[in-house]
Write a structure and sequence with these properties.
The two termini are 31 Å apart. With 269 residues, the protein is an all-beta fold. The radius of gyration is 18 Å and the shape is globular. The chain contains 1 helix and 25 strands. Strands 1-22-19-24-14-13-12 form a 7-stranded antiparallel sheet, with no helix packed on it. A 6-stranded antiparallel sheet has the order 2-3-10-5-8-11. The protein has one helix at 22-25, and strands at 5-6, 16-20, 31-37, 42-46, 50-58, 61-65, 69-73, 86-90, 95-100, 104-112, 120-122, 128-132, 139-145, 155-161, 166-167, 172-173, 175-178, 182-184, 186-193, 199-205, 212-218, 222-225, 232-233, 240-247, 256-257. 1% of the residues lie in helices and 48% in strands. Keywords: Isomerase. GO terms for molecular function: 5-deoxy-D-glucuronate isomerase activity. It is an enzyme of class 5 (isomerase).
Length: 269
């Protein structure tokens, strides 16, 4: 198995099914973890030097921080309802607790924080929905924590790619500190596949091909993108979801397309 794939496992004692830390990924910014909770289960944590965005992938929950509390948040019972989620932003130097009111799936996205912003609820109405691409590159985007919303480091988006389509396409990268043209951003892809036994394909490659991997991705896998271009394909019959967590030294999404494929930006494919 590729070292870029972190597979989901059965829930451990803490209810975690997949976990990425800067140490395990051998990078400096992004952390990511998913919990599967039964009704009544709780997770809690001090944020320390990290800012956190908790994404309620499915189910209903109560959430609280040191100063704030939100009861009975949730809207979708399954990721593939394709409606925006609830999320909670928590700054560094704070703490959080999430209590599941139903079976729930919770993603916890982390990156270095400065304590600049207060904890807040991100409701579905706050999540901008975009359709990106056309033809076989059409996909649905939910901007959970985009660049124009306050945070110190984190950028978070979820993407729905219909079966037979491509996304993160044409291939692009964000692995150089070369502003205003390109920003260095580490990225995780948390993949879910609607149909049982399905799969997706993801390629991660650099111009010099020192990194050049094409991976078979299964439901629940996380793919690490430390550098390079990273297109994704959803095979016919298998609808794909992924949650992206990005962070780097400057909080801006500036990227470079693969010059070999940039011509497709003007085409319907």
């Amino acid at each position: 198995m590729s070292k870029l794939i972190v597979p989901s496992q059965q829930p451990n004692q803490e209810k975690s099914v997949v976990k990425v830390t800067p140490e395990s990924a051998n990078w400096g910014y992004v952390g990511f973890e998913v919990y599967t909770l039964a009704k009544g289960d709780k997770i809690s944590m001090d944020t320390g030097e990290q800012e956190v965005c908790i994404v309620l992938l499915s189910g209903y929950a109560n959430a609280r921080t040191k100063q704030q509390k939100w009861n009975n948040i949730g809207q979708r019972m399954h990721i593939f309802e394709e409606i925006p989620p609830y999320a909670v932003y928590v700054p560094s130097g704070d703490q959080y607790e999430v209590e599941a009111l139903t079976d729930a799936e919770i993603a916890v996205c982390t990156a270095p924080g400065k304590g600049t912003y207060e904890a807040r609820l991100i409701a579905p109405k706050d999540v901008r929905v975009d359709m990106r691409g056309s033809g076989k590159t059409l996909r649905r985007i939910h901007n959970i924590l985009p660049e124009d919303q306050p945070a110190d480091s984190l950028l978070i988006v979820e993407v729905y790619t219909p079966n037979g389509n491509w996304s993160s396409y044409p291939p692009h990268k964000h692995d150089q500190e070369n502003l205003p043209n390109e920003a260095y951003l580490e990225e995780t892809y948390y993949h879910r596949i609607k149909q049982a036994n399905g799969f997706a394909l993801q390629r991660v490659y650099t111009d010099d091909r020192s990194l050049n991997e094409t991976m078979v991705v299964k439901d629940g896998d996380v793919v690490l993108v430390p550098k390079g271009y990273h297109p994704v394909s959803a095979p016919p019959g298998y609808d794909l979801y992924y949650l992206n967590t990005m962070a780097g030294p400057v909080r801006t999404w500036k990227f470079t397309n693969d010059a070999d494929h940039e011509w497709m930006m003007t085409q319907t494919v």
